Amino acid sequence: MLLDTASLYFRAYFGVPDSVRAPDGTPVNAVRGLLDFIARLVQDHRPDDLVACWDNDWRPHWRVELIPSYKAHRVAVETETGPDEEETPDTLSPQVPVIVDVLDALGIARVGVDGYEADDIIGTLTGRAAGPVDIVTGDRDLFQLVDDARGRRVLYPLKGVGTLQVTDEAWLREKYGVDGPGYVDLALLRGDPSDGLPGVPGIGEKTAAKLLDSFGDLAGIMAAVDDPLAKLTPSQRKRLDEARDYVAVAPKVVRVASDVSLPDFDPTLPSEPRDPASLDELAAQWGLGGALKRLLSTLQG
After folding, report:
1. Does the predicted model carry a pTM greater than 0.90?
2. How many Å apart are CA 203 and CA 187, to the nearest integer?
3. Distance from C-alpha of 64 to C-alpha of 71, rounded to nearest angstrom
4. How does 134-149 read in b/e, with b if 16+ C-beta sit within 10 Å?
5. pLDDT tens digits, one per residue of 191-237
6. Do 104 and 274 form a contact (C-beta atoms < 8 A)?
7. Phi/psi at 49 (nearest 5 deg)?
8. d(CA 32, CA 12)
């Protein structure tokens, strides 16, 4: 089981009231919400391995070089030497280091690599896995990794993590008319305002799906632009022709990396905390008692 950790702690932050606070009054709604999410996921799905995948860089420079608008609207502070700072609610930012400390004390693997997003870690680990993989994320971009033959599916939270949309190839085909790899082509044609991806003007989701159905993939669509006999409307041909520069670079931006060099780590789901003393201190300092007890009980079960 691979967690898109930031996606889940953002969801926890907005789903759990900020009246949930530590003894000193600091909000810990994201921390406790995430712990409850993990407990529920382990209880319901019983994975052998679990990795909290991390955004060491939420807006990698190599993606921005290709499409400058990529996530640009979410930049709070631009930095010269490291990752730009993302706009984050004031009461969430201080909770992220607490999440790091708690996961480390629990012994839950947390993996991030400089210059890459959590999506890229997930893509790399999914490609390496010998058995089935469940990816837990609220990010539709990861639908591209769905592969029934290899047991790859996305568990997309609809309400907390108690109600999950199990995204497999049948669901993708019914919803979008594409398989996992086809989702990359659909997403880049359609665009995604939440990621600052412009898409091809005038080509929405339904049109993109129809074009992919007619011509197979992005290469087939662009070949059709050059074929006067291909069944494209004049406006579609014109818009696609004008978007050639974008279409040439967008696949590298939208497709998750599959070849990230990862550090050594143990993905085995722990049954006992790695550092009980530190965990006790964190529980006392941040008022995490109930959430941690529930998670520890689930891990031991």
Report:
1. yes
2. 11
3. 8
4. bbbbbbbbbbbbbbee
5. 999 899 999 999 999 999 999 999 999 999 999 999 999 999 999 99
6. yes
7. -120, 150
8. 8
**Is the CB of residue 205 less than 8 Å from the CB of residue 179?**
no
Question: Strand 51-53 and strand 2-4: pairing?
Answer: parallel
**The 163-167 sheet, strands edge to edge:** 109-111, 51-53, 2-4, 133-136, 152-159, 163-167
Residue 222 burial by Cβ neighbours in a 10 Å radius (0-12, 13-18, 19+): middle
State which amino acid sits at residue 36: D
Amino acid at 38: I
Residues near 162 by beta carbon (within 8 Å), at least 6 away in sequence? 40, 44
Q: What amino acid occupies position 216?
A: G
Please write the tens of the pLDDT for every residue from 57-80. 999 999 999 999 999 999 988 888
AA letter at 225: V
DSSP string, the chain: -EEEHHHHHHHHHHHS-TT-B-TTS-B-HHHHHHHHHHHHHHHHH--SB-EEE--S-SS-HHHHHH-TTTTGGGEEE--SSSPPEEP--TTTTTHHHHHHHHHHHHT-EEE--TT--HHHHHHHHHHH-SS-EEEE-S-GGGGGG-BGGGTEEEEEEEETTTEEEEE-HHHHHHHHS--HHHHHHHHHHH-BGGGTB---TT--HHHHHHHHHHHSSHHHHHHHHT-TTS---HHHHHHHHHTHHHHHHHHHHHSPPS---PPP---BPPSS-S-HHHHHHHHHHHT-HHHHHHHHHHHH-
Please work out, in degrees rounded to the nearest 5, the angle formed at the alpha carbon of residue 148 by the alpha carbons of 220 and 253.
45
Determine phi and psi for 116, rounding to 5 degrees. -135, 150
